[in-house]
Amino acid sequence: MKPRIIALYLPQFHPIPENDEWWGPGFTEWTNVAKAKPLFKGHYQPRIPADLGFYDLRLPEVREQQAELAREAGIEGFCYYHYWFGNGKQLLERPFNEVLASGKPDFPFCLCWANHDWTNKTWTKGKNHRRDSTIVKMTYSMEDHILHFHHLLPAFLDKRYITVDGKPIFGIWAPNDFPEVKTFINTWQNLAKENGLPGIHFVGYTVNSSGRSAQGNKLSLWATDEAAIHYKKILDMGFDAVMSSGLSRAQSIVKGRTRMLLYYLSKNSFLPTSNRCDYEAVMKNYYVKEDSWENVYPTLLPQWDRTPRAGIATNPLINSNPQKFQKSVEEAIKLISEKQPEHQILFLKAWNEWGEGNYVEPDLRYGHGWLDAIRDAVSAVNT
After folding, report:
1. Exposed (0-12), middle (13-18) or buried (19+): which is 236, by Cβ within 10 Å?
2. Each residue of 133-143: pLDDT tens digit?
3. Is 228 helix (H, G, I), strand (E, B) or coil?
4. Which one of 131, 188, 281, 285 is separated from 56 by 20 to 30 angstroms, measured CA to CA?
5. How far apart are the C-alpha atoms of 282 and 182, rounded to whole Å?
6. What average pLDDT does the segment 285-293 reach?
């Protein structure tokens, strides 16, 4: 049975007035990607796109090419990040709005609500840059929940929208930061049924372990067996399923307690390269047995390097390549193989997060290697 691989898709690759104001005219994700520099020996930077070039997502030709590349790799569809801040305020909405209105590309899609403040923490700038400033604040209200649903109803009704058990998938990136999320979910479920849908299939994102215990705020860097607690917490909020990530847990194991403690205590200052981790070692600890639960959808991680966005004080993975990625995809596919076909879902994190070194689009170093790894992994498991 072919796994349902859904790729998280960042619509940051076109100018918007808010980014022009804070970062300069024409700013997009490419701005820092292109000027990135190697920060240690063997550091692969800058990462340069191949087939698609430094594209602008306002161009329908680019969106068609992306869909064709994804289709050829065996990816079921794109999960567009959706930026809705309350009172109808949106950012980066143009690419998806044009996909919806035009009917092109004829390629499946769903949405993941990036329900967090829009701040200037995402990218670093020069010495005069104002830090920790909120550009757009996230707000919630019952009136806005109703407005939000009706705004997205045409998307939910689109024949291309990806469903699970007949219900449109809707991801929420920060469920733990969402006040009264149960009320929101119940409201949307009722609105869905009133508008001819069987309901919404809500998916909440979470890590399977973090620097703090899932049972409280106590620093617990060695609590690497708390996946069940993290997952159940999301499900208890009313979500139908969990989108899981094992990066923080795996890094905790690979680095060990002392190094992780030093990293968390120093993450806001310049930290030397001691926070690097080997990709293969991390991926050996990325998945947990709970990822085989029927209502857990693990993530695929091809590579990870946020230094173009935030400098060395991050947690880059080193030594990743398509061959190692393919092995991790094969492992993930086997992990979900006993689930019902509708629930054999893997979220690819991500399609085009170039600023986080987290993408599968063709680049100058490996060409189509990341996409070929997905295609070959699916073929290998099914033979």
Report:
1. exposed
2. 778 899 999 99
3. helix
4. 131
5. 34
6. 97
